[in-house]
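Input/output pair, single chain:
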Amino acid sequence: MKQSQLFTKTRKEAPSEEMSVSARLLIRGGFVEKISAGVYAMLPLGFKVLTNIENIIIQEMDALGGQRILMTALMPKKNWEVTGRWSSLDVLFKIARESGEFYALGPTHEEEVVPLAQKFVYSYKDLPFSAYQIQTKFRDEPRAKSGLLRLREFSMKDLYSFHADEGDLDDFYEKAKKAYSKIYERVGIKDKTYLTLASGGTFSKFSHEFQMATDAGEDIIHVCKKCGLAINREIKDLYPVCPECQGGEFEEKKCIEVGNIFKLKTKYSAPFNLQFTDKDGQKKAVIMGTYGIGLTRLMGAAVEANYDEFGIVWPGELAPFDASLIAIGSNDPSKNEKIVSAAQNLYEDLQKAGLEVIYDDRIDKSAGEKFKDADLLGMPYRVVVSEKTLEKKSAEVKARNSKTAKLVPLKEAAAGRF
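Output:
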């Protein structure tokens, strides 16, 4: 894409009410735009990042054996009354029609996926299976803040697993932990993310949260200095010593939750009477697990974990483009045609080589402005064509996470060999 054709623009300053680093940088870079508290529009660059996150999650959920579906965002009141959450879930958006019918805007989908499973699960032969979706969710958050880290409207992956017994659930649960770890590695936050013991509520001794350390976080976790086990502040009082290694001091970390997994067991299958017939002909309740991860929050978290004083430093798999290409004009106007032609050729060659490139072809911007924008946008590589580089039949290449640049022969640069 040519940057002159991008309808969004970078900003020198972010809105003063935005306190988190990720919100400030994403707005300044033109990735997102705040519509209201907790509601953000995805602009072209931001949507490309969100799509990259989605692709990573799809790959890992498919590898886990999940089957992708898409449920409805508009959910009937009667389902929520079955579980008792119509009146007890305080973040539920409720919609009333003139006819007197009530609906909920889905914040999560246990109330829909269980009745769906009920139409297809009859025997032990129908189990196990898992289904997931990636969908817009709605939660009436009283404290929507920190940009994409706490929203009222957001994109979320929710996966639900169905089992004949707890042993099978336990096996799948451990595989899900590993799948989540791969996701966090690929989006560039694994080194700052902790698998954290959390309250399991009424259905399990523990659930597990994935908490990423950041100054913008709202949660406090306690990490064992000896074995690395993390415990959410909500249950820390139960464990004066580490339950894993029976010793070691704890240190506090401020975090944001970037995923959670629960062993639901029969919490939702029982109210809907979701049962199966076992090998002996006995009716039993289906055992369930649920596994959530917010895509928009993950986007904000990735920026919180990967930035410097100049802007965003996107991990390679998340970046909207592989490289920023910049043409720098000469003080001698007669040489500019050659520079522009070389940059255009390199732009086309890089695309032929399979790389996605944003080409800063803007003629009204100085070299300094183009460099600042490239750093703010944070593509993995910056490639510069100028009078000086062409004298050596080269392009200047600088990795975004490096302080030094190098000259790369044009033929190698054109093939993406940076």
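The first strand starts at residue 32 and ends at 36. The chain is about 30% helix and 30% strand.
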